[in-house]
Amino acid sequence: MAKYWVVGGEYKDTSFNELARGEEQRFGPFDNYDLAKKEWANRTWANVDDAHMRFRIIEEDGRAYWVVGGIYTDTSFTAMANGGAEERYGPFDAYEQAKKAWQEKAWSTVDDCNARYRIERL
User: Fold this and answer.
1) Sorted alphabetically, which Pfam families does this protein's record hold (predicted)?
2) pTM for the complete prediction?
3) Which among 20, 106, 118, 120 is least surrounded, fewest beta carbons within 10 Å?
């Protein structure tokens, strides 16, 4: 059965690659995603005014990471501009590998407000 964790903390800058001090904070494990998402929301909203704070949900279950997204018709991010399916890149065995691929896709489309990519475990 999958376990979910909320992980994050204060980073040196908004690249979110290096912590400002100490180790990442870990909250959990949570037995389901919805419980982890509530904890993530609480942590995120409690630090909404600090651009260097970031939390994410990670899942322990051995599945692979994928980068998913593309160019959407508008900023609701519900329909693809090309009318097709979302782009998928992966699989990646480690989150850090997927994060690197995500950064490349996100930065290559940074000027397009209809572009969005995310990391998923599938």
Assistant:
1) DUF4170
2) 0.51
3) 20
